[in-house]
Predict the structure.
Amino acid sequence: MTKAKPPKGLKGWAQGRSLWMLHFCTGCGAIEMPPTMTSRYDMERFGITPMATPRQADLLLITGYLTVKTLKRVIRSYEQMPEPKYVVGFGSCTVNGGMYWDSYNTIKRLDLYLPIDLYIAGCMPRPEAIIDGFTELIEGIKKGKFDGWIRYKENLEYYKRNQAMVMDIRKWSLDAELAERIWNEVQEERRKRFERATVKHVYELAERIPEGLPK
Amino acid sequence: MNAVGLNITWIIFMPILVIIIGLFYLGAARKITARIQNRYGPPIYQNIIDVIKLFSKKNPTNHGVMFSLGPVMAFSGMLISLLFIPIGNKALLSFNGDIIVLLYLLVIAPLGMALGVGEGGNPMGTIGIARALTLMLGYEVVLVISIISVILYTGSASFMEIIKMQSGGVGHWFIWPLFLSALAMDMALQGMLGEKPFDQPVAPHEVASGPMVEFGGKYLGLLQLYHAIGIVVETGIFVNLFLGGGTLFWWFVKSFAVFFVALLINAVMPRFRIGQAFAFFWTYPAAIGLIGLILVAILK
Amino acid sequence: MMKLLYFIGCFSGGALLAFLLGSFSPLLKKFITFLAVILGAVLFATMGTSTYQLSLLFGNQVIFGIDTLTQFMVWMTLGIAFIVSLVLWSHSELSPTFFALFLLNVLGTVLIFMSRDIVSFFFSWELMSWTAFGMILSDGWEKKRSAAVKYFMWSAAGAYMVLIGFSILFAATSAIRFENIVMSVGRVSHGWLITAIAFLVAGFGVKAAMMPFHVWAPDAYSESPHPFTGFFSGILSKTGVYGIFIAFFYLAARLEAVPMLRVHGTSIFGYIMVWIGAITAFGASLIAVHQEYGKKLLAWSSVSQLGYIIFAFGIADSLGMTGALSHALAHALFKALLFTILAGVIMRTGTDHMASLGGLIKRMPLSFIFAVVGGLALAGIPMTIGFTSKWIIYEAGINGGYIFPTTLIFAASTAAFLYYYRFVYSIFLGPLHEEHQNVKEVPATYWISYILLAIPIFYFGLYPGKLVGIISTILQSYNLPALTTYTATSVTTPLGTFNGMVVGLGFGAALIVGLIVYFIGGRVRKAASQTDKYLAGEVVTNEFELHYSVDFYRFLERKLSWLLKISAQKFYEFIGELIRFVADINRKMFFCGNGQAYLYYMTIVLTILILSIWRIKP
Ligand code: SF4
């Protein structure tokens, strides 16, 4: 089987010039979207328009911190999007937790759970920064640089395992069989560790950060 | 090449032309709206890029056979309606059916889409369809009233006859003698095009873009094409009935002018509630249309 | 002569056999019914156009005859009867009485179309009405009482009105045979003739569910046994239409010369019928939009479609009559198809409550396809017979200058999209309910009947000229104005042209183009599960109610509530209340159970009597 590649040429160009985004307005960063969309900065001149449903969207925009509860919905929405699809993390919360670095109910590193194509750093990033990020995304897509969804598909097990660390993936994954299997494995692993766990261990287990991203 | 051969060539060529021009209409619509809102706006060919992108998307979700067939039927229904309306003195198939045939051909497309949306099974989509049908019950009455007044005025329901009677300059256009009917029809057109006070079926904030909610990738691409043709056909009815047709170039200019008026209204209007929209159609436009109809009946 | 007796014997004998032998084996009653209908059709085919005289007791004679119109109506009847008898193969649970009554009902209907005098007509009429009444009741008196009684009362009222109309004609012309009546109708005074026609049209209008005589129809249609409903609404209503045709064109033509009765060159009857038809079509379709039960919805839709026919009859020129007769056939076909599909759904799921159905396309795809076909015809989409007939009706309305009723008719047909979409969405589309996971497709008898009904629907849609041709022959044989500008595939009216074949081929080509464009787009992913939908990221289980089918057009209902409040039913209930009130006062005053009061009344009455016959000689 040939390895899936991101679109190039006409397809890549069209894909880059017409990004329809599903903005998942989770954190406070969402407040920067309206100015970016309206007359002052006007994102639409790059062909970027907000869309109502993941079915129509190419770009999943995560605007800020994600609680575990929201992560489930984000993953569901991401999996419902048709390919090629891109994820943009927005604000430092998605990079490393930002000011929520020690919060018990938000996730810290989004790229453990979803394949991030581009981060826009800042707390919160100004519209200029957003536009800058988007232009880079567009140029990258035209050249076929971003391949997040391919990484997600190829390392599905890795992502699912990470997701299973923080949430019940059985209900929220489209591929129910795989989710069931990985969920059971993770549970088994977790049960084994629990048998000789100290308080410190329990805390670690609740939020285990796996080392290193897949190659 | 003889006339029949030429006509057949046009029948094959016209849909492609109309699709491209329709997509440019949509792009212009976005640009104009942006300018009205003091934005720069996307390039005018943006919708062509959108369609190319939509068709290049992989693995859009499919909910069943009717779900796939819905957008196809919508597209084909619009395509066949297109051939029954004369465009710029090109009769195409319009000798084989009159206005009423066209009115009912126009229904194939929404019906196909409605069935597809139904199989998608998303309640939002169905609410959108229910709203669209309610709106249709509203504007069809107005539309029919003004079409009847034109038929009454000319004594023919054939597009080519009606266009022929308007030949001979701006002064002969039916928009002058049938001003009230034209006004009513323009209001109905606003609903037909789904422009702003009447965009309840696809209201993104209420029903998540309504009928389109489950459609992505090439399904949405087909629906975009359907929409592009639809705009030309729907404004084309107005052009042929009231603005006297014209050569190919002028025909599209007139049709865009009609669309432009709708756009201006669209850009500054908020949205009606669906019940209000329905009631609106059955009050003011219907009353205007009826007065126009009565005037035609009396003066004739 | 003998052939007619054979024909009658075939059906009544079949009925008797089905009734007697049916209780022994369910197979037998179905087989006998099936055979009787086929045999009847074969016999009818051999009869040709002819006239038969049947001698009754005391040397009286009744006349039956077959002409082109009769052939048209009878073939329609026998065709739908054949469909029903085919479908009945899957319905062993219906009692033998039902099968017997069904055969008699078909016989009665056919005889109505054949009868050529007052006596035979009225006899057939009663046979048809009574057997239909019996069939509504055939599975349980308690459940169906209200609908059946309503049907019976209205049928009786209709029959009496027909009887009064005929009696007036008989009294004035002392002729029983239709042709004699027509010949000597000139002797009847205009006043009596108008009265007679009014009574006849009202009486037949009851059967044709003409507003305001329609109130029985939705209840009776929806309470009749499911496989039979298609015949009930498709064919039995056509007897009323036929009656109106006969009354109107045999008799009303005589009134044409009376200037008082003419407005703008049309008889005033025409105006009244056009308006009644348009209001029936419009009002009934608005009511159909708000129905919760499938059968009720289709029943109201039937009332609405019959309104089209009455509208077209009222126009009474060549276009109008062509439209009326072709819509009679169209309505019979698509309504039989839709009711049969609904019968199949009810057989498999046990309900026609639309909110508790849904998603059946996954389990009954064939039924869905034909529901779409039926719906295309109902909504009047080109390429189906529904458009052919509706188009002629619209052109007739505009051409005749009836602009306002025509607008109503257009609105009615838009409302038809609304209720049709509600019907097909609520039953076949949307999510599949948990309890219908294992529903099976309808049996072969059903889908064969679907196919048989779909063939003429498409045939006459693609060849509208053939249908117009048949009807023109009928109208010419009645010396009525007929539409002559048609070829096999196209019809031309004074206003415009419609070429069914070009539309069909064009749409076929467009569909191919659409499919090519679709397949260019590449592969698709099948939805992971039924709940793989956009729900704002939420995941719901199958039990979650995602079927948008309750209060479907709520916003419309809210806006139209003032219109929907006007109801003939309420009016009749008011009259009923009034009568009850008067009767109550009457009872309180006179039947008080007090002996002295009775004695007192008797004295008064006697005194009055004595006084009134008292003669005082000067
Ligand atoms: S990065 Fe800053 S602005 Fe953005 S969500 Fe986090 S805390 Fe809010």
